[in-house]
Amino acid sequence: MYLYALQRPSIFAPAWLRILLCAALCIMLASCGFRLKGVAPLPFDTLYTNISENSEFGANLRRAITASSPNTRFVGSSSEAQAVLTQLSNKQFLRELSLDPQGRVEEYELNLQFTFQLTDAKGRLALPPTTLFVTREIPYDATVVQAKQSEITTVFKDMRKSLIDRIVRHLSAPDVVEAFANPANLPMAEEPPSGAPAQEPETPTPWSQPGLMPGMGLE
């Protein structure tokens, strides 16, 4: 019995130490502003966007916003919405990065360029026109066209997912929350949001766009 009593502290000490370390870590993370990815309610309950819900990009964007802010629902017209997310520009293009001694492309740079704005129900800018860029590099081999076509399509798809995450973070940013809380001094948008759905550009490839020039944008 005496030996058991002596051994008990050594058995339970590591557990207490782990608890203390976890508590200290939580305090440190909280003090530096760390927040786990999860629900981030948006400062509006209804949202309209001109990004087509029939496109992969539009459908994934809607799912991401709903997952982040379950109380926010999409409506069919800007007149019904407390906020309007307007796609101003959406470009996907390729740029030549390197050539082999014979002048053939060895590596391409894939680019997404997306510009959008967020307005309130009265057309005031809660988030002014903002351009986001996503870039990836990919090696190219003209002898395996089909494989490269599939790879480029997959990479652009992953880039659009990254772009959607960034859009959602912008919508839930503190300055957007503040803008909807105090809208009186917000500037008016230069142009009213268009009701026409914005279409997603086709994925560019060197073989499907024979006239493609380096750095050329595709609407």
TrEMBL record:
InterPro entries attached to this UniProt entry: LPS_assembly_LptE
Region (Disordered): 185-219
Biological-process GO terms, alphabetical: Gram-negative-bacterium-type cell outer membrane assembly; lipopolysaccharide transport
MF annotations from Gene Ontology: lipopolysaccharide binding
Any GO CC annotation of this UniProt entry: transporter complex
UniProtKB keywords: Cell outer membrane, Lipoprotein, Membrane, Palmitate, Signal, Transmembrane, Transmembrane helix
Record bears the keyword Membrane: yes
This protein's record includes keyword Lipoprotein: yes
Family annotation (Pfam families): LptE
Transmembrane segments: 15-34
Self-association and partners: Component of the lipopolysaccharide transport and assembly complex. Interacts with LptD.
Record function comment: Together with LptD, is involved in the assembly of lipopolysaccharide (LPS) at the surface of the outer membrane. Required for the proper assembly of LptD. Binds LPS and may serve as the LPS recognition site at the outer membrane.
PANTHER family tied to this protein: LPS-ASSEMBLY LIPOPROTEIN LPTE
Family: Belongs to the LptE lipoprotein family.
UniProt name for this protein: LPS-assembly lipoprotein LptE
